[in-house]
Amino acid sequence: MKKILNKSLIALVLIAVSLVSASCTNLSPEKTFDIAALNSNLLSRFGSKDINFKLDSEPQIYDESKKNMVASSYYDYFKFDIANLETQFNKIKEIDENDDNRELLKASKDLFSYAIAKQKEGYLPIAKMKDEKASPEEIQKAISDFDASTQNDIESKFTKLMNVAKAYAEKHNIDANFGV
Fold first, then answer.
1. For the range 2-7, what are the long-range contacts, defined as Cβ-Cβ under 8 Å and sequence gap of 24 or more?
2. What are the tens digits of pLDDT across the range 92-121?
3. What is the rounded (10 degree) CA torsion for 108, 167, 150, 45?
4. Residue 33: which of 81, 91, 86, 85 has the closest Cα?
5. Phi and psi torsions of 56, nearest 5°
6. What is the reported pTM?
């Protein structure tokens, strides 16, 4: 079951990334909103929820030559996920900034750049610990330490983006649900 859920999650991320892979210049407010705000959902489980989910899953990455998912180390699995976030972040950076979308893009870039940097600093060492068969207690301590050092900042950045995104959606009559 976890294998199926894992493959489904990866497939959804790949579909989302491919849908936004079109040129990002001169986008409609709706498309700008989709790329800069909606795709922040990729970060909604940031921290222990995300790490534990991945560590409980079978590690897999997409093999371009085989055109399917293949078994991998946890380290490569986490790197693969970070690479997908970096692809999304690049799409945000490609959007032409103007007075109308500047605040939305700034908040989105701030969230994604922070999350990617922290995942590289925190997720990858934890994945390596799992690959090297560290004790569950050591891994959980590293996860707790990671959360303690990042949760306030990530929540603040996420809240900032949601507040800006809500105002942007209202201004452009974009139908979006901000309830959790």
1. 2/56, 2/57, 2/58, 3/57, 3/58, 5/57, 6/57, 6/58, 6/60, 7/60, 7/69
2. 999 999 999 999 999 999 999 999 999 999
3. -80
4. 91
5. -90, -5
6. 0.82
